[in-house]
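User: Let's play a game. I give you a shape written as tokens, and you guess the letters that built it. Ready? Here's round one.
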């Protein structure tokens, strides 16, 4: 406000303070004409310069209330919990207070200082108290603060969504005058006539919208039937292809943002994104604001493109998509975006060569969508086998012999495959594993070591490194050489501090009482041995009789014709000795 205007308003305020009430309007109107301002502006600025009555003194108890914060919170909870999912409250404040009072959950009272009477607080006083406590439902139901999502460059992140065209369907009838794009008459297709809706369900027109988050570039394509993984993949693959002309946006995005619909999270969608290295970001249910850009694109398409379809007959889906392609090329090249103040196409054209990842052909993309990753075991040469050929996975960090890796084909190169792993944050990471180029004899040309000429070895795997670390810990050494020396010296690991049986020595077992049993009633088995023949007995006893004669053998044959057992030989010998010791001794009679 200039000094001249300020001075004029100060003078006017003084005149008005002394002028009769009937003249004040004319004085303000005259000042407005002089200063070239409107009458409301004069009144508003007079408040800024008027030096008049002192402001009314604020009450000492202003802002205070006898309604406690706990009671205010209880009332607010009852109002919020009665709300529908769309946060439309069913309880009024009056009804909630009455129900809570009658239930004994709140009192909401005040004391009349002049009479000492306990009176209920008025609804207006309760409302003011809830506002002062900042517990009013209008405050609690306010949207949560959000953080702006940022993209780094074109094709950094795309958002995709499917929408049912509520006004149109395509009639495939044979009559060219009645077939083609039809407007859904509200009298025929309102909610109380489900049969009519079911009759044209297969002919309903769906649109898929894709936006580039960095530039806001809008891609739209129409399909028939319903939201499905087949339709989603078809549109996504077409959007990634280079189409030429002003239909500019193409390439493989780094990130694809979508809602948690079944088609979006299908295995076919995951296979395609996994093979192309696209990170899928599926927002939580109820968090549609994350993909708000593509939701806004649907509004733009309805107002700026579909609104004209009523005046432009379309015969079939191909004609509708051809018209949509012309519209999106024109719209993105001409409409100024509110955020970056440029056309969407001009900003998309700032994409660098490294940022623009060209998509494989439509046929390759479709094959990737139906081919799931396969699991392959890492060999001792740090290789995996895939479709009859071997590939080196030595480039994959932390890989060990015997690990099982997820493998898919590389959509851009035939001489390599893609290895799918997870990083520390749980995000999928891709590594390109090159094909092993074999010689005519089947040897690795590039990675092999020629005998007598070179010596190569793989970088130590995490398992090898951990094994050496464990050995150094066990022997208290700082180097692998020290560990080897300790082992040659037959040192005990852990310096003998590890006592494998100490827990047995320290164990305190309970006292066990002996248990009663029964005697075994089985008799020891009898071992039968074959008898020894007479000839064998004579041969064994002959040495015990110096005077052995044929009479000894004759005696054995007569007393033991069938032979004798081993344990009977002592008795046989005794019998034989006794028989021959009783013979009379012959003496010479009349000898000299």
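Assistant: Ready! My guess for every position:
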């Amino acid at each position: 406000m200039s000094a001249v205007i300020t001075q004029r308003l100060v003078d006017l305020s003084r005149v008005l303070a002394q002028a009769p009430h009937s003249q004040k309007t004319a004085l303000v109107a005259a000042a407005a004409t002089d200063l070239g301002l409107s009458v409301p502006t004069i009144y508003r600025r007079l408040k800024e310069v008027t030096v008049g009555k002192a402001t009314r003194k604020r009450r000492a108890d202003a802002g205070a209330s006898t309604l406690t914060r706990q009671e205010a919170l209880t009332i607010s909870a009852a109002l919020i919990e009665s709300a529908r999912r769309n946060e439309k409250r069913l309880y009024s404040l009056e009804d909630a207070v009455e129900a809570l009072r009658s239930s004994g959950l709140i009192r909401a009272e005040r004391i009349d200082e002049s009479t000492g009477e306990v009176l209920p607080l008025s609804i207006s006083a309760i409302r003011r108290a809830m506002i002062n406590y900042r517990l009013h439902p209008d405050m609690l139901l306010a949207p949560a603060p959000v953080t702006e999502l940022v993209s780094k460059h074109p094709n950094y992140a795309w958002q995709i969504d499917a929408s049912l065209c509520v006004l149109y369907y395509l009639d495939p009838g044979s009559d060219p005058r009645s077939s083609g794009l039809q407007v859904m008459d509200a009298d025929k297709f309102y909610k109380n006539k489900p049969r009519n809706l079911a009759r044209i369900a297969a002919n309903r027109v769906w649109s898929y919208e894709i936006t580039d988050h960095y530039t806001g570039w809008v891609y739209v394509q129409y399909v028939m039937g319903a939201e499905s993984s087949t339709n989603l993949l078809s549109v996504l693959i077409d959007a990634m292809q280079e189409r030429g002309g002003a239909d500019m946006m193409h390439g493989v995005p780094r990130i694809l943002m979508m809602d948690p619909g079944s088609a979006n999270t299908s295995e076919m969608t995951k296979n395609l994104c996994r093979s192309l290295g696209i990170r899928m970001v599926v927002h939580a249910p109820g968090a549609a604001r994350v993909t708000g850009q593509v939701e806004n694109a649907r509004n733009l398409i309805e107002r700026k493109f579909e609104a004209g379809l009523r005046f432009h007959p379309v015969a079939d889906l191909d004609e509708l998509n051809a018209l949509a392609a012309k519209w999106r090329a024109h719209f993105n090249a001409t409409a100024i975006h509110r955020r970056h103040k440029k056309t969407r196409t001009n900003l998309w054209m700032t994409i660098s060569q490294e940022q623009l990842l060209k998509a494989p052909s439509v046929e390759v993309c479709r094959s990737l969508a139906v081919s799931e990753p396969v699991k392959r075991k890492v060999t001792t040469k740090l290789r995996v086998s895939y479709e009859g050929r071997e590939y080196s996975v030595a480039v994959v960090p932390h890989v060990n012999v015997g690990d099982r890796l997820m493998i898919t084909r590389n959509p851009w190169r035939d001489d390599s495959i893609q290895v799918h792993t997870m990083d520390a944050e749980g995000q999928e990471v891709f590594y390109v594993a090159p094909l092993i180029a074999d010689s005519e004899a089947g040897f690795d040309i590039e990675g092999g070591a020629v005998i007598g000429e070179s010596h190569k070895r793989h970088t130590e795997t995490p398992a090898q490194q951990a094994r050496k670390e464990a050995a150094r810990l066990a022997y208290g050494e700082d180097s692998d050489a020290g560990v080897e020396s300790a082992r040659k010296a037959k040192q005990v690991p852990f310096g003998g501090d590890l006592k494998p049986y100490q827990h047995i020595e320290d164990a305190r077992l309970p006292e066990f009482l002996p248990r009663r049993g029964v005697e075994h009633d089985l008799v020891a088995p009898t071992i039968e041995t074959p008898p020894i023949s007479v000839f064998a007995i004579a041969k064994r006893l002959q040495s015990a009789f110096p005077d052995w004669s044929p009479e000894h053998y004759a005696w054995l044959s007569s007393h033991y014709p069938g032979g004798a057992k081993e344990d009977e030989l002592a008795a046989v010998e005794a019998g034989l000795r006794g028989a021959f010791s009783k013979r009379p001794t012959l003496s010479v009679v009349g000898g000299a």
